Every structure is written in structure tokens, then in C-alpha cells.
């Protein structure tokens, strides 16, 4: 049953349309946390909304309300706890597990199909550099599907590193190496070359693009995440890449999902050529 229907008679009829039609659930049958955005007009009914969410899904313990946009270097929301409960959960996705506390480190279940698509592009034997790795979900998705040589997964947030180490262990991965570092420092000292580099920081990866391009083997691939307006979502990302690497070609373009009103989160796949 839809959340809105459950709240009929609890919330005045003229406000019912403001009840969100969806919310995020992170976790599994063993325990989950629900994350919802509630407009200010529904402030007096926020606890009733949270209780209705729990009625819809018995696995949910904590219900938390997202406030404002992601901010800060760790790309976190401000959260208001509506119903207390554990916020550290184990999320199940395409045959693997992601342990995470979304109040401490970035994670979005909405990126699941992008992870699957990207993991399918990787070939056995590749060397993968995963920048802005959070709790490491792309590394897990790749390493579960492919016998890669290695994946170095670089993240600044200490909570990201902690959960990444847990995720390597619970998914029994041997090829993933979690690293706590600033991408700028790591890339400038990176002695090896990667066959593939992932830059999963839509708001800010551009500042590290030059450094990341240097880490790619000639003929390798770079996956660059960025944001773009709905009328021309890829133009800026492509121009940024072309301005730094004239020999590079764009071999894939993907709208990952909505980012903000009329703005998409996008990914471009770049074949790196040094001419
Ligand atoms: C948008 S999140 C993506 C996390 C992860 N790849 C995922 O998809 O769940 C970007 C991550 O980059 C990290 N980050 C931001 N600036 C960084 C930097 N300079 N060096 C390393 N990590 C950074 C943030 O802490 C955050 O966890």
C-alpha cells in the first residue's frame, strides 16, 4: 500500500499530495533504515509519516529525515531522527553485501544499476583505480563479477575506510585494497598505471580530472561522473575532458539519475589516448 493511502485520515486531505511517493530503504531483512525527505508543510505530521513507513516495511528500524542537500567533503546530508534505531545496516545488492551507516558516510541504493553496468564493462585481469570510493560499493560490484588484478579504492572519510575494510571481509574479496587518502595526494604519488579509473564524485571530480587522467594507461578507460542540465547533460563533462586530453574519445554517455530539479547526475566513459 502506498504511504499516502496509509496516511489518509491522519493528514488533512489538502496536504496529502505533499507526502513523498517514495523514500530510500538501505538494509536487508535483518534490519534496514528508511530515509525520507519531508517538506516543511508536513512538519506537524513527521512522526506519523515515519510510523506509517514502519508499518509498510517491518524490517525498518530507524526512520530518518533528510534535510537540505549533501554538503561538506564527505558529501553527507543533515539528518533528523524521526524514529530511533540502528543506522548501521547491511545492504543487499545483486548478490553482495554493503555494510554502511548512511549518517556517517555516503551511500545511495539508487546507484545500484550503474554499479552493475560499470562492473560489466570491466575485463578479467584489469588494474582498477577507484577514486572517491566511500564504503567501496563499485569495488565490491566489480570484484564479485570479475577476476581483476587489483582495485585500489581511495577514500578520505575514515568511516568510509572502516566500512570498506568490513565490506572486503564480508564479501570475501582478495583483489580490493582500501586506502585512506586524499585523491589529490594519492594520484600525484601513484607509481603504477591503471587500465581503468573511476571518479565517482559528481560534484567536484572535475578538480581532480587532470591528476586522474595521468593514472590511466594509454588505451585505458576513465569513467567521469559529473552533473549536467537536462537540456544538454553531457556537454560540460565532455568539454572538461577534451580540454585536458585532446586524444581522448568519449565512448559512452549515461544519465545515471536525477540529481536536482532539471539537473542529472551523469557518467561519461572516456578512452584515454595520449597523442
Ligand atoms: C559521491 S560519494 C561516492 C562514494 C562511493 N563511490 C559510492 O558510490 O557510494 C564521494 C566520496 O568521495 C569522498 N571524497 C571527497 N573528496 C575526496 C578526496 N579529495 N579524496 C578522497 N575521497 C574524497 C567523500 O568522502 C565521499 O565518500
TrEMBL record:
Pfam assignment, any one: TRM5-TYW2_MTfase
The protein's name in its UniProt record: Met-10+ protein
GO cellular component, one term: cytoplasm
Single GO MF descriptor: tRNA methyltransferase activity
Keywords, alphabetical: Cytoplasm, Methyltransferase, S-adenosyl-L-methionine, Transferase, tRNA processing
PROSITE patterns: SAM_MT_TRM5_TYW2
InterPro entries recorded: MeTrfase_TRM5/TYW2, SAM-dependent_MTases_sf, TRM5-TYW2-like_MTfase, TRM5/TYW2-like_N
GO biological process: tRNA N1-guanine methylation
Keyword Transcription: no
Ranges of residues in domain SAM-dependent methyltransferase TRM5/TYW2-type: 23-274
PANTHER family cross-referenced by the UniProt entry: TRNA (GUANINE(37)-N1)-METHYLTRANSFERASE (PTHR23245:SF36), TRNA METHYLTRANSFERASE (PTHR23245)
Statement: the UniProt record of this protein carries the keyword rRNA-binding: no
Amino acid at each position: 500500500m502506498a504511504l499516502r493511502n496509509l496516511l489518509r485520515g491522519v493528514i488533512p486531505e489538502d496536504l496529502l499530495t505533499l507526502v513523498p511517493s517514495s523514500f530510500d530503504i538501505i538494509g536487508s531483512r535483518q534490519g534496514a533504515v528508511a530515509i525520507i525527505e519531508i517538506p516543511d508543510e508536513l512538519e506537524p505530521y513527521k512522526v506519523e509519516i515515519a510510523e506509517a513507513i514502519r508499518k509498510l516495511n517491518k524490517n525498518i528500524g530507524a526512520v530518518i529525515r533528510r534535510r537540505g542537500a549533501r554538503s561538506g567533503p564527505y558529501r553527507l546530508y543533515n539528518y533528523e531522527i524521526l524514529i530511533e534505531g540502528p543506522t548501521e545496516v547491511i545492504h543487499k545488492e545483486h548478490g553482495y553485501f554493503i555494510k554502511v551507516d548512511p549518517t556517517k558516510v555516503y551511500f545511495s541504493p539508487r546507484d545500484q544499476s550503474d554499479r552493475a553496468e560499470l562492473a560489466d564493462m570491466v575485463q578479467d585481469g584489469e588494474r582498477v583505480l577507484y577514486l572517491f570510493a566511500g564504503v567501496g560499493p563499485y569495488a565490491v560490484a566489480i570484484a564479485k563479477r570479475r577476476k581483476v588484478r587489483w582495485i585500489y579504492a581511495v577514500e578520505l572519510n575514515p568511516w568510509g575506510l572502516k566500512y570498506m575494510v568490513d565490506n572486503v571481509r564480508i564479501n570475501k574479496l582478495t583483489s580490493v585494497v582500501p586506502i585512506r587518502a586524499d585523491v589529490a595526494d594519492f594520484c600525484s604519488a601513484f607509481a603504477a598505471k591503471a587500465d581503468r579509473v573511476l571518479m565517482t564524485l559528481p560534484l567536484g571530480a572535475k578538480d581532480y580530472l587532470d591528476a586522474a587522467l595521468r593514472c590511466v594507461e594509454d588505451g585505458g578507460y576513465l569513467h567521469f561522473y559529473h552533473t549536467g542540465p537536462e537540456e544538454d547533460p553531457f556537454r560540460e563533462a565532455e568539454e572538461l575532458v577534451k580540454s585536458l586530453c585532446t586524444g581522448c574519445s568519449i565512448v559512452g554517455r549515461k544519465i545515471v539519475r536525477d540529481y536536482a530539479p532539471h539537473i542529472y547526475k551523469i557518467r561519461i566513459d572516456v578512452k584515454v589516448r595520449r597523442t
